[in-house]
Amino acid sequence: MKIAVCIKQVPDTTDVKIDPKTNTLVREGVASITNPFDEYAVEEALLIREKHGGEVHVISMGPPQAIEVLKNALAVGADKVYLVSDRAFAGADTLATAYTVAKTIKAVVGDVDLVICGKQAIDGDTAQVGPGIATRLGIPQLTYVSKIKEINLEKKKIVVERLLEYGREVVESSLPALLTVVKDINEPRLPSLLGIKKAAKAQIPTLTAKDIGADENRIGLKGSPTWVMRVFSPEARGGSGEILKGELPEVVPLLVNKLMDTKFIK
Amino acid sequence: MAKLLIDKDTCTGCESCIPACPFGALSMKEGIAVVDEKCTFCGACVDICPVSAITLEKEEKAVTIDITTYKDVWVFIEHEFGKVGSVSFELLGEGRKLADAIGCKLCGMLFGDQETVDKFAKEAIAYGAEKVYVMEGPLLKEYRTDPYAKAAVDLIRKYKPEIVLFGATTQGRDFAGTVATTIEAGLTADCTGLEIDPETKYLKQTRPAFGGNIMATIQDYPNYRPQMSTVRPKVFAMPPRDDSRKGEIIRETLQMTEDQVRTKIVEFIRGAETINLADAEIIVSGGRGVGGPEGFKPIRELAEVLGAAVGSSRAAVDSGWIPYEHQVGQTGRTVRPKIYIACGISGSIQHQAGMKTSDIIVAINKDAEAPIFKIATYGIVGDLFTVVPMLTQEFKKRLGR
Ligand SMILES: Cc1cc2nc3c(=O)[nH]c(=O)nc-3n(C[C@H](O)[C@H](O)[C@H](O)COP(=O)(O)OP(=O)(O)OC[C@H]3O[C@@H](n4cnc5c(N)ncnc54)[C@H](O)[C@@H]3O)c2cc1C
Ligand SMILES: Cc1cc2nc3c(=O)[nH]c(=O)nc-3n(C[C@H](O)[C@H](O)[C@H](O)COP(=O)(O)OP(=O)(O)OC[C@H]3O[C@@H](n4cnc5c(N)ncnc54)[C@H](O)[C@@H]3O)c2cc1C
Ligand code: SF4
Ligand code: SF4
Predict the structure, then answer these.
(1) How many angstroms does the Cα of residue A234 sit away from the middle of ligand 4?
(2) Which of A167, B82, B324, B398 is buried deepest, with most CB atoms within 10 A?
(3) Can you tell me the ipTM of this complex?
């Protein structure tokens, strides 16, 4: 079974804060990490390989520093990893990113049985790249997957559970297919010491736009319909922030009065 | 190719730009700012520089399509379990404003089996659509990516809307990404604000990114149309319903057969609790402060007295105390109730992303410094295990329950 996993390097947004004085993003010392959802994607690929055999290919498009996340993938057990990096990719929106990643999958993996992505990246937060790659590859997509119930290689089919607003949808699809996974799906493993050593020494192939045969009008800023015009910090909600002070036996009825006055409680 | 230029002679080395870059692409070298390959040309640093040392050169793109042939504002009418998603009506309300601003029609796009389509097309008209483009048939009974995407792509190619809006629900986000890729249009995700320039008809789409830590305003380049966005539920108000409104229904046929659809829905397992958070008028939520699954007992009791839904923070969901369906926030539901009562929730930016448009926010937390108090309408500093049962008793008394 040939599995391609797409991973993205992202800033650790839990560390990102807004400086209230300058109103800018404070990201000093903010580490770059593998997009958390993509760790579940890698883990799921490894689990499938353990059960059905095959190869796990991990791909990341990004600046040269993104090599780090690919090393992590190698350390946990990916068979092959590839960095796609070119100045011409800079400024890519989701349309151009999906095009580039799909082109890479075709160029280095060839005919895949399964592509696995994270549900969304925690920086761009769009959840659009997965469906974009599936569409470019001409394969069905199964988004928000929380469980793989069955893979039947002979019949070329997969059954998964998708986590939606109102519950779980069980869907059957033909293979090859693309999944985007949520964090309920597994518990990512930690790399072994041996794995880390191996990864540190590994030579990671870097592909350029030319290597993947990309159309220059479909990559980077040039291939991107959307344009981020402005970035700013979110407005604080103007809550009146009335903290009701006093002893609880007085404060509680006071709050109840205030809420009853709104007439929202029927 | 685009370029970010920092004028060495103008730069005073003040370092203001360094933290402004969301991508960490700027650093100081020998007293002046330098940019590296992490730069995505987002432009966030340009206005920060007090001496205007930073300029962003963007390549002018040749306009290759005739954008004057694109007109009208379309809203995708999504439905599930025999009900239209309220976000679709909210979008008709907002779409009305956009259509009026540029002087065009507001239209719905609706797929389903015959029965649903007939019923929901009328509802879309009652909420303001002047035209509804429909495709009907057994293939379209429930949402599946293949037939829905084919239907939408065919309609969009034929009728060329200026703008297409989808709800940023799991369905809308699965769907819109496929449609946008197929027609190679821009798609802005999970918007919380829409604004249109009446002259150029450019849609300015504002959305949170970086887990809600920053907001970005996004616009499409003019050689890509339609302008498409997914919009977060509950950010726009429901428009009034008027069943006397008249509208036109345009029917098209889907050129697809079941064997061309690559997926099959086997079954749907409903969440444990049927109460719908997104539609609740009152929500009582518990966070890590409830301390365990049994800690939700007082929360549920208060909710019951008030006829409210039970929500939670991600911390409580991640700890396995309550199912995911209850999670409010960035990666859970966005809610907009009349009253939101947060108990033992600190008020992280990600939690706020899902509830800060509530009319009234009540915070109950033992830490007076908790950020939730900054956005609360009313707050009580105290132990939730004392305060919440007292509230329940008091409401019971007042409501005679
Ligand atoms: C503030 C801001 C707002 C933006 N808003 C939009 C917008 O509304 N619309 C838009 O089209 N673009 C937008 N972009 C651009 C977008 O973030 C980039 O195109 C980004 O490369 C991919 O989008 P994402 O981070 O949202 O990924 P998602 O679509 O959320 O990622 C989903 C999955 O796709 C895979 N994946 C994503 N990126 C890569 C990669 N580089 N290499 C390998 N696999 C990958 C991973 O498996 C990931 O889990 C925005 C950028 C910024 C800075
Ligand atoms: C990408 C991303 C997405 C996220 N999405 C979401 C999301 O959708 N929703 C979400 O909620 N979070 C989300 N988070 C997590 C978020 O950052 C916080 O970690 C989370 O909201 C914290 O939950 P909490 O307020 O319950 O817990 P804490 O922050 O631990 O707060 C617990 C609070 O309870 C109070 N408390 C404790 N005991 C008592 C008591 N007996 N009585 C009264 N008060 C008490 C404490 O003072 C404290 O303020 C996301 C994070 C990331 C990085
Ligand atoms: S344009 Fe954006 S990404 Fe580039 S350096 Fe400035 S802030 Fe950073
Ligand atoms: S803000 Fe302007 S002057 Fe200050 S370091 Fe950056 S480029 Fe130089």
Answers:
(1) 24
(2) B324
(3) 0.88
